[in-house]
Structures are given as C-alpha cells and as structure tokens.
TrEMBL record:
One of its GO terms (molecular function) is phosphatidylcholine lysophospholipase activity. SUPFAM superfamilies: SGNH hydrolase (SSF52266). It comes from the Eukaryota. This is SGNH hydrolase-type esterase domain-containing protein.
C-alpha cells in the first residue's frame, strides 16, 4: 500500500510510503467543548502563547508563524475551513492510508526549521486499529511523541474517530487506545482533542470508516476552531 503526501497551502509534494467531549491542552491552552453536535469546541486560554525559541528578537521576528495539521485520509476535505482564512499560516498535510509510523517519518519533510510553529495538530490511528494490536499502537504513538518533541511546538493529538460495521474487536480497540491516548498526552504534556462519540450518529460514510459530507464539515470546523485559537 502507498500513501501520497497531499498538502494544502504553499507546498505540494508526494512521497512513497513504507504505509460532552473534552479537549486537554497543556502548556498554553485549556479547552472544553460541548457535547452537542451543533456546538463547536470552545476555548479558555489560561495564559498567552509565547515563542520559546531562544534567539534574538530580530531573528524571531523573521520566523514565519505556521500551524500544521497532519494525518491520514480523514483530513481530506478539511482544507477549506482550516486554511481558508489564511493559507500562508495554516497547512493541512493529508497522507491517505498512513499509519502512525508514516506520520513519524513524514514530519522531517513537513516541518521547516526556519518557521515557528505555535501548534502541530496530529490526527492518525484509524488505519492502525485494523489490526487491533493495541500494544503496537501505543508503541508507535510513543515513538511519534519522541519525534515531535524535537520541534519545540505545542503538540495536540486528535482522538481516533469511531468506525461502523468493522466488528466489535476494532471498536473495542479504538475505545481502549483513545482512553490510553488521553492519559499519555496528559503525562507527556501534549494536548488531546477528544471527539468522544460525536461522530457515531449519522456522520460516517458508506464504508463505515470515512466521514459523510456533514461529518467532514463538522470535523473540519472543530479542527479549524482549534487552529484559529492557536494563531490568535
């Protein structure tokens, strides 16, 4: 299986692959989102976002501020709400078919040392749950955590969305991984965007994995709202 790196913004490149909810954001943000489907996540800022790059004021001022959203094919269709307000400071990197390890390997081609990243938002894991190997999934998330810490950005992990018609084993795997991911993010100082059961009712597409049109709209809105607050 191959995935193609599709970016929204100033870059386009392709690379062969090897393949109520609560939001917890440590460091700069604490977010609480309503459980109602019509209500977007709301944000309460506990302290202002500050640049942690230890450079002179002149050098820091020259750095381009960018928020990157990276993950699997569920990000397809979220480009407009996320990047629409300002594509120069927001980028969606969709890697169809990607697993956690693929995102880990792709980050070095996505993150630019010359830019400043107030937030890196990661949504991946659905394809990994097909094997229902929770221990391997946790191991891959830990390796990804080590990698993202090298960039010095505020990192947020988005919870794995539910699937339908793929058997109780996979559903249990998703629930178990999300529960662990929430605890792990808290321990490691990462943010966690928990979608809960918001996407279970009528928001999945015919294949039971990807989102319907209304599901994509809601998903894109939730991610875009988080990106907007990171840049403000």
């Amino acid at each position: 299986e191959h995935w193609k790196l599709v970016t929204s913004g100033s870059r386009q490149c392709s690379t062969p692959a090897p393949n109520p909810p609560t939001v917890l954001l440590h460091n700069h943000y604490t977010l609480l989102s309503a459980g109602d489907k019509e209500s977007p996540p709301t944000v309460k800022e506990t302290r202002p976002c500050t640049t942690k790059v230890e450079q002179s004021p002149a050098t820091t001022a020259r750095k381009k501020c960018r928020v990157v959203v990276v993950g699997d094919s569920l990000l397809r269709g979220t480009e407009a709400p996320i990047c629409g307000p300002d594509s120069s400071s927001r980028e969606v990197c969709c890697l169809p078919g990607a697993r956690i390890r693929d995102v880990t390997e792709a980050l070095s081609r996505i993150i630019r040392p010359s830019d400043y990243y107030p937030m890196l938002l990661i949504h991946v894991g659905t394809n990994d749950t097909a094997r229902c190997d929770t221990e391997r999934i946790k191991c891959d998330y830990r390796a990804l955590g080590v990698r993202v810490k090298e960039f010095g950005a505020q990192v947020v992990f988005s919870s794995i969305l539910p699937v339908k018609g793929r058997g109780p084993g996979r559903e249990r795997c998703i629930l178990e991984v999300n529960a662990w991911l929430r605890r792990w993010c808290r321990q490691e100082g990462f943010g966690f965007l928990d979608h809960g059961v918001l996407f279970q009712e009528g928001l999945l597409g015919g294949d039971g994995v990807h989102l319907s049109r209304s599901g994509k709209a809601l998903f894109g809105h939730r991610l875009a709202n988080l990106v907007r607050r990171a840049l403000n």
